[in-house]
Design a protein that fits this description.
Layout (H helix, E strand, L loop, with lengths): L7 H20 L2 H8 L4 H19 L2 H22 L11 H29 L5 H30 L1 H7 L3 H9 L22 E4 L2 E4 L4 H29 L2 H29 L6 H20 L5 H30 L4 H30 L1 H15 L10
Antiparallel strand pairs: 1-2
Helix pairs in contact: 1-5, 1-6, 1-8, 2-3, 2-9, 3-5, 3-9, 3-13, 4-5, 4-8, 5-13, 6-7, 6-10, 6-12, 9-10, 9-11, 9-12, 9-13, 9-14, 10-12, 11-12, 11-14, 12-13, 13-14
């Protein structure tokens, strides 16, 4: 029977991930647009994404405990049901309060799915396969974003919001698929976050061996800061692109940022596996994202001809963040070791989703009184401020 990257279990996980993130991607830029139609301003639109991410992050810290109690499969099943089942209820009202109530339930489900999914990738694969496994998992996450982020905006423009909300039930198909999934780990089973196993010594990573306990927290800081800053930039863009430009320009820009992230994650996975560049892609990824956000500042200031720059900036933000996503996840797995894959996944996903929330709420708060150029400028400054702290620390 095939194991590792070629196992049926791993590929079924990827398909279920595509379905789960399909519903997430379809609704992510549409819910802010929906409450805007109901009379909410930029801050209210940002709050919808901010609440989604806040609930997601709060849930994520409980997921390692859930993984120990009920296992990866049932965490994923329940999470996908919570993501998909409430989606059609959004059509009942565009008022902020009921939308936030539905968003809260969906956020709980999303928090469960994100941590359990990426932790299961590490559980199913040997450390030497983590880089390529993370990049393939990134493709499963990125393809729905690539296809459905812009699709949702276009469908709303053609036939209205209700069809998109019904499409948000796609994660239920992923839940059905997970029910038949048999999880046979490729390596020895280690209890998630078992403190006794934390003395395992060193773990292999794409960039070599990394001490697992000494310097672990210092090593985790750079990947987490890079994730937070990159997610802030992309979260702000995804939230506000649909309400700052024409439908055509927003659709192209959303497609571009999703495509950039997809390519960035895949390229990072290959560079780490083939060139042993683990930990060296965080600074370039953050700086590429800063250039992209600077382009968005200029686009927001232009009165005409802004669309090409808007799309190019979104592409660069996505590409830089894609590099950061893959390299940071592999580094966190390496620093934590098999005993702490659940914890590493929770930290990575919390940084990801916290950043999206900060991008939506924080940049929305700036955009309200000062405009979107100032908001995108704040995102640029954050990336530049964080970049020096994302360098890989010298090994002891």
């Amino acid at each position: 029977m095939r194991t590792g990257l070629h196992s049926v279990t791993f590929w079924l996980l990827l398909v279920a991930t595509v379905l789960a993130f399909g519903g997430y991607s379809l609704l992510l830029p549409i819910v802010p647009l929906w409450v805007t139609e109901g009379g909410a301003g930029p801050f209210g639109a940002g709050v919808t994404t901010g609440v989604l991410m806040a609930v997601t992050v709060a849930t994520q810290f409980a997921v390692p405990w859930l993984l120990r109690r009920i296992g990866h499969r049932w965490v994923l099943v329940v999470g996908m049901v919570l993501m998909g089942a409430p989606a059609p209820l959004l059509a009942l009202s565009s008022e902020l309060a009921p939308v936030l109530a539905v968003t809260t339930v969906r956020g709980v489900g999303f928090g469960m799915v994100t941590v359990a999914g990426s932790a299961l990738v590490a559980e199913l694969l040997d450390p030497a396969e983590h880089s390529r496994g993370a990049s393939r998992f990134g493709l499963a996450v990125g393809l729905p974003l690539l296809l459905l982020l812009p699709t949702g905006v276009a469908v709303v423009d053609w036939v209205g919001f209700t069809a998109v909300f019904v499409g948000g039930t796609i994660p239920l198909l992923g839940a059905a698929l997970m029910l038949v999934l048999r999880i046979d780990r490729h390596g020895p089973v280690v209890a998630v976050d078992d403190p006794d196993a934390a003395t395992a010594g060193i773990v292999a990573a794409g960039s070599g061996t990394v001490p697992e306990v000494p310097g672990r927290r210092r090593g985790e800081l750079g990947p987490l800061l890079a994730m937070l800053a990159g997610a802030t930039a992309q979260g702000g863009l995804i939230t506000f692109l649909p309400v700052t430009g024409t439908a055509a320009a927003a659709t192209l820009a959303l497609f571009a940022t999703a495509a950039g992230a997809l390519v960035g994650r895949f390229l990072a996975g290959e560079l780490v596996a083939r060139r042993e560049l683990g930990g060296r892609l965080l600074v370039p990824g953050v700086l590429i994202g800063a250039v992209g956000m600077a382009a968005e500042v200029v686009a927001a200031l232009l009165t005409a001809g802004a669309a090409p720059l808007l799309v190019a900036g979104a592409l660069l933000v996505g590409f830089g963040f894609g590099m950061v996503q893959n390299d940071s996840l592999v580094q966190l797995f390496a620093f934590g070791g098999p005993a702490r894959y659940g914890r590493a996944s929770a930290l990575w996903n919390a940084a990801f989703d916290s950043g999206f929330g900060v991008g939506a709420v924080g940049l929305g708060a700036v955009a309200g009184p000062f405009g979107f150029a100032a908001a995108y400028g704040a995102g640029t400054a954050f990336l530049l401020l964080v970049a020096p702290f994302t360098r890989r620390p010298a090994r002891a």
